[in-house]
Amino acid sequence: MFLKTDKIKKEWIDYNGHMNVAYYVYIFDKASDVILSTFKMAGDSAKNNNKSTFVVEMHTNYIQEVQSGDEVETHLTYIDHDKKRINYKLSMFHKEKKYLSATIEVLSLYVDLSQRKVVEFDSDRIKLMDDFIKKNSAKFSNENLVFSKKLKK
């Protein structure tokens, strides 16, 4: 499921002649905001409701390099949750050549920012996530997941 497109900037290229690992995480993080916004858990939620998600674990695979000027698309390829955690996987594809460049799997916790404490998802967020998963589950793959067993269902 497509989330966004980015163009690799010259300043993101390291001494090996390809995109530095930090910018893979940066692109994935910005794409995460797209999906988290769908569930009212991104920047607006942090500002208006004092609740957000904190990443607690990430697993990244670098498969094929991308270089300056390349365009990449980031796609959501898996998502699930329990009462306090959200687990999702994103994939980055070279836009023109269509090859898989990298993947990242993320485990995040829902946090009340006023207490800096993990809390359960609000019921409206649970409904948004459940409806989204039900509608899109056929598009997702649970292959090679690292964190899915950490969800407490």
**What does the largest sheet look like?**
6 strands, antiparallel
Shape, per Cα inertia axes? globular
Poorly predicted segments = none
User: What's the total number of strands?
Assistant: 6
| Mean pLDDT metric | 96
How many DSSP H or I helices? 3
Radius of gyration: 16 Å
Secondary-structure element string: EHHEEEEEH
Helix content: 10-25%
Show the helix and strand layout.
Elements: E1 2-7, H1 21-38, H2 43-48, E2 51-62, E3 71-81, E4 85-94, E5 100-112, E6 117-118, H3 123-136
Antiparallel strand pairs: 1-3, 2-5, 3-4, 4-5, 5-6
Account of the 3D structure:
- By secondary structure, the chain is α+β, with helices and mostly antiparallel strands.
- It has three helices and six strands; from the N terminus they run βααβββββα.
- Strands 1, 2, 3, 4, 5 and 6 form a six-stranded antiparallel beta sheet that branches.
- A hairpin with a 3-residue loop joins β3 and β4.
- It is globular and about 45 Å long.
- The relative contact order is 0.21.
- The model has no long low-confidence stretch (mean pLDDT 96).
